[in-house]
Design goal:
Number of helices: 1
CATH class of one domain: Mainly Beta
Strand content: 35-45%
Shape: globular
CATH architecture of one domain: Beta Barrel
Strand order of the largest sheet: 1-34-32-31
Helix content: under 10%
CATH topology of one domain: Thrombin, subunit H
C-alpha cells in the first residue's frame, strides 16, 4: 500500500489525494451494487444530510452536550458549499450553525469539535482557508453561531493543513498539522487563548531522525503528556505512535512494521485504558493488509484483530477507538462485501460486528469518524460520509 500525503496546492477542488481515492472507491462500490444487509437491527439514521445550504459529507467525530445535542463539521455543504458546523438533536432536528465563506474564516473542516460547556463555544480546525489558505483554528458559539478565527496558519514553519481535532488544557489549545513545519512533515503546536501559536515539534522523517511524518489524527492528553500518531515515518516509514510534553519534549514510542503481523499507517489516534495500555487502529497492515486493532504497552505492540477483505467486519479503519462498557468500539470503512461497520473488540481481542452499513436510503455508507457516547450513556452516535435519503451522509445511532 502506497499512501501519499495530501498536496493542498494540487487539490483544486479541496479534496485531498487520500480522501479522493477513498471517496472514489465508495462510488465505484455503489455503482457495482456492492451492498450487504445489516447484521443487526440496533442502528438507525438520526439525520440525513441534504443539498446546500444544508451541510453534507461529514467525516468528523461528533461531540455531545449535556442536553444530548450533537455537534459536528462537514467538509462540504453550507451556504457556500465550503463546509459547515452543524448541530442536531437526538431526534434528528438539524440546522447549520455556521457556513464557511471561502475567506479568512477557513474552509473545508474535516475534524470534529471540542465543546466548552462553560462558555458554549465549539473549537475546531479547517484544512484550508485562512489568510494563507493553509488552514485555521476557529471557534463557533453553539448558541449564536458566531465564528471567529483564533489562528491562521501561514503554511511554513508554523505548520499547514490541520486535519485533526484539538485538545484543550485550561484555555490552552494543542493540535497537529498534516504539513509544514521545519522539515515539511507536519507539526505539533500549542495555541494560547490570545492566539499566539508555538510549534512544539516539527516532524522529521529523514534519516537518522525518523520520528514520524504527517500526523492526521488528533492528540490525547494523558497524565500530563500528549500522545498521538503519524500516518507515515518511523523506522519503516509506516507510521508511529509518539508522546510529547506540553513543553515540547518528544519521544517515539513505536514504529509500525506492517506486514501480516503488524499494522501500518494509522489515521486514528490512541486511547488509554485504566491500566495505561494504549489501543488504536491502523488503516493498513495485518493478515489481509486491511488494517488492525492493536494494543501497545512498554514499547511492545500486539495485534488484537486483523480486518479481512472478504468478511463482514469492514476494512481500513480511519477512526480512533472508544471504550464503552469495558469493550472497545470503532468504525471501519467499506470493503469487498460491506459499506462499512460499527465493530466491537474485547480487551482480549475477540471482535464482533455491531452493525453493517448497506448504503440505502435508511442507512449510511462509509463511516470515517469515531463514535461518541450520547448523554443517555446508552447510545453511540457517529457519522457516515454518504448514504441516507439524499446519499449525502448521515448522523446515525447504535444501541449495542
Amino acid at each position: 500500500m502506497d499512501l501519499q500525503p495530501p498536496d493542498p496546492a494540487a487539490a483544486t477542488s479541496g479534496l485531498t489525494a487520500i480522501r479522493t481515492c477513498a471517496f472514489l472507491a465508495v462510488l465505484l462500490s455503489l455503482l457495482a451494487g456492492i451492498t450487504s444487509p445489516a447484521l443487526a437491527t440496533t442502528e438507525s439514521v438520526v439525520h440525513s444530510f441534504g443539498n446546500p445550504p444544508d451541510a453534507y459529507g461529514p467525516r468528523c467525530n461528533l461531540v455531545a452536550d449535556a442536553a444530548g445535542n450533537l455537534y459536528g463539521t462537514t467538509f462540504s455543504g453550507g451556504v457556500n458549499n465550503l463546509g459547515a458546523v452543524f448541530v442536531t438533536t437526538p431526534a434528528g432536528a438539524e440546522h447549520v450553525l455556521y457556513s464557511f465563506t471561502s475567506g479568512t474564516d477557513g474552509t473545508h473542516p474535516i475534524a470534529g469539535l471540542v465543546y466548552d460547556k462553560k462558555t458554549g463555544n465549539l473549537y475546531g480546525t479547517t484544512v484550508f482557508g485562512g489568510t494563507a489558505n493553509s488552514g485555521t483554528v476557529f471557534v463557533v458559539n453553539a448558541t449564536t453561531g458566531a465564528e471567529s478565527v483564533l489562528y491562521s496558519f501561514k503554511g511554513g514553519l508554523d505548520g499547514a493543513n490541520p486535519y485533526s481535532a484539538l485538545v484543550r488544557s485550561g484555555t490552552t489549545i494543542f493540535g497537529t498539522t498534516m504539513n509544514g513545519g521545519q522539515f515539511g512533515y507536519g507539526t505539533v503546536f500549542v495555541l494560547t487563548a490570545k492566539g499566539k501559536e508555538t510549534v512544539l515539534h516539527s516532524f522529521n522523517s529523514a534519516f537518522p531522525t525518523l520520528d514520524g511524518s504527517y500526523p492526521y489524527a488528533g492528540l490525547v492528553l494523558y497524565k500530563g503528556l500528549l500522545y498521538g500518531t503519524t500516518t507515515l515515518g518511523g523506522a519503516s516509514n509506516l507510521g508511529t505512535v509518539f508522546s510529547i510534553s506540553k513543553a515540547g519534549s518528544y519521544a517515539l514510542l513505536y514504529s509500525f512494521k506492517g506486514g501480516t503481523l503488524d499494522g501500518q499507517s494509522p489515521f486514528g489516534g490512541v486511547l488509554f485504558d485504566k491500566a495505561g495500555i494504549i489501543y488504536g487502529t491502523t488503516f493498513g497492515g495485518g493478515t489481509d493488509n486491511a488494517g488492525v486493532v492493536y494494543s501497545l504497552s512498554g514499547g511492545a505492540d500486539v495485534v488484537l484483530h486483523s480486518f479481512l477483505r472478504n468478511s463482514a467486519d469492514g476494512i481500513n479503519p480511519y477512526s480512533t477507538l472508544i471504550l464503552f462498557k469495558k469493550n472497545f468500539y470503532g468504525t471501519a470503512t467499506g470493503g469487498n462485501s460491506t459499506g462499512g461497520t460499527v465493530f466491537k473488540v474485547t480487551p482480549s481481542g475477540v471482535e464482533s460486528t455491531t452493525h453493517t452499513f448497506s448504503g440505502g436510503a435508511t442507512d449510511g455508507f462509509n463511516p470515517y469518524g469515531a463514535l461518541v457516547v450520547g448523554a443517555d450513556k446508552k447510545t453511540l452516535y457517529g457519522t457516515t460520509v454518504i448514504g441516507g435519503s439524499s446519499n449525502l451522509g448521515t448522523v446515525f445511532k447504535v444501541v449495542p
